[in-house]
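Hey, quick one: can you model this chain's 3D structure?
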Amino acid sequence: MSRSAAAWIFELEADYTYNIRAHLPAGWHTGYAFKEKGGRRLLEIRPNGDARVPAGYGWDGCTPKFVIWDIVCGAPDGIPNPHTRKPKAYYASLLHDVLYQFLDCGLPLTRAQVDRIFLELLARDDFAPRWLYYALVRIFGGAFRLFTRWQRGHNGSCEMLTTTPAGEPAAGAPP
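Sure thing. Here's the predicted structure for all 175 residues.
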């Protein structure tokens, strides 16, 4: 990125929740929080299968991307979705990015399952080249993940959520 640029292309303005229950192991009934190296919670997977990403999460959308003379080049994120006013690949790339980030930290999903969630969200948001993007993450996603993991030097951490009988995080649960 340019020295005068923001660290990320996108920053989540409000919490985002998407139910991934269909992709979780049979009998899933536990909630987990996943934290970055500094301890900030970046992902929760609740007992009901809701994957929640908190506001403030930053990412580059579909990758790879690079900058030449302050012009972002690389994988386009699509035209604005008429309902959300965000690029059509916005939520798919968000959830894919955060799930990949914690694949080696006890995430109860495989890379193939995370890629399938990516395709599911691209289809939901009617992104026309979804099959091409899906094929590209299947082919190149593993290499990009290993490079990013090496670059970060830390996989994050995972902790069980303290929950109420209804399955929601309890008031005493850590933020």
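One thing worth noting: Residues 99 and 114 are 7 Å apart (CA to CA).
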